[in-house]
Amino acid sequence: MMIWVNQIVQGILLGGYYAVIACGLSFMFSVMRMINLAHGSLAIVAAFALYVLADQYGFNPFSALILVLPAMAVLGWVLQRTILERSQRGGMLVPILSTFGLSIVLDNLLFEQFGADTRSLAPFIDELSYDSWTITDDLYIGKLAALTFVAAVVILGGLQLFLTRTQLGRSIRATAEDPDTVGLIGINAKRVNAAAAAIALVTVGIAGAFLGMRATFDAYAGGPQLIFAFEAAVIGGAGSLWGTLIGGIVLGVAQSLGAQISPQGFLITGHIVFLAVLFGRLHLDTIGTKFRKTVRRSA
Amino acid sequence: MSLLEIRNLDVRHGLLQAVRGVDLSVEKGETIALVGANGAGKTTLLRAIAGAHLPAGGNVRFGGTDITLVPSHSRVGLGIALVPEGRRLFSQMTVEENLILARSAGRKGPWTLDRVFEAFPNLVPRRKAKAGNLSGGEQQATAIGRALMTNPEILLLDEVSLGLSPLAVDRVYASLDTLIHGGTTIVLVEQDLRRAMRVADRIVCMLEGKIVLEGKRGEITREQVSEAYFGLGIAKGRLSA
Q1: Closest partner residue to A183 among B72, B91, B92, by Cβ?
Q2: Quick one: pLDDT at residue B30?
Q3: Which of A226, A239, B12, B188 is within CB 3.0–4.6 Å of A30 for a Cys-Cys bond?
Q4: Where are the membrane-spanning stretches (chain A) (predicted)?
Q5: By three-state DSSP, how is residue B172 classified?
Q6: Is A45 helix (H, G, I), strand (E, B) or coil?
Q7: Is any Cβ of chain A less than 8 angstroms from the Cβ of B97?
């Protein structure tokens, strides 16, 4: 019994991590209507940047974030003005292609620079990487996992507050809804979107930090991260911020329970839940209509 | 010098030329009604003045400076506000948020959140309601209030009565009355000729992208406007007051 409780708790904590890596993706989709396939690769770029600062300059990964996050924001701004904005003019599908291309470029640049060795930020954060609190004899909560979960809640809550309480946040929401009309009330849609991209990439930088601290990464680790982020975002309802946290938790719990059922069940259960939610969403309307029709006919 | 001067303006939608060689000057404090059949180019002309649709030829001067190629968001900063056709509110945001957003232009002036709610008291109880859930009249009031929040020198109103009940139209015009008499420069597109001739100092009638009739209130008759509206009186030439 206790083992299942443990799996669920660990799944929820894992969900926090998925929410951290998904939130940039979900934010970009909800605000700029853009699916950023370079999301995972950009997180790896941040992870490598943190690694270099820690390994060669002796920074603690957390203090290195002070340098890396502003750099990610600038990168977001530049990406938006040079690649994303241009490709978005070509329709919905062009940004998918161009960000896919961008991810290939980033992966291979990283590979050229850093080679195939796997790396981790864990050695630079001392006991935080393995320390845990003992709840009962069968239940441990990892300090890093708990910190990740708290970070997810803080980031998503912070973004939510930012979007509802600040003028820039409101401008971002308005631009998402109607980019032509915002111009008529004095908002520069291009600048707002560039700011939104900068914010999205700051969250990607944080995602890269947690990814590097909890596990290992190499130049090509972006792809798998993108899949988990994508699944969490879709399960939670693409574009909804708190939904992303719920989506991450559902995915994390499904994977942990799957791993308990069978040693190979971790990934497959996650994918199954993702597909089930996806098809459920697609067909829920038709099922609902059919049901209502049957009820009406029998009444 | 006129507040707004349009010279030989051409505006295209792809291959379609919606506005053809239009000349129009708007004096400060004036109210102009733009009338004409559907597809005459009224909306396109307003959007070109607001910068939402950049022209293919000609020029637009505002307060003496050439703004022909200035993007819409910068024109708001100069004092041009458009209430677009169909209102175009941000439907997922509250009335208050819609209004506050218009502060982005950063123009100081008499119009504040309180002042807008004073001018449109029907919005007060709907302050926190999502704009998408409002009635047509409330939405129109919000759209006008949103434009006013930018403290414009010239207000462009595109079919403010579209889709509203006669009662709601009366309410909207009652609140516009204060603006008109308060000296705000207004260019409005109105399908209801009677109403247009009542509120405006000058009537401008468009047909197939051109201005075919222009005259001060009292100097032109309804019949003249109707003829111009349907293109019956073209042979008589452009009547200028």
Answers
A1: B72
A2: 92
A3: A239
A4: 12-30, 60-79, 91-111, 140-163, 194-215, 227-254, 266-284
A5: helix
A6: helix
A7: yes
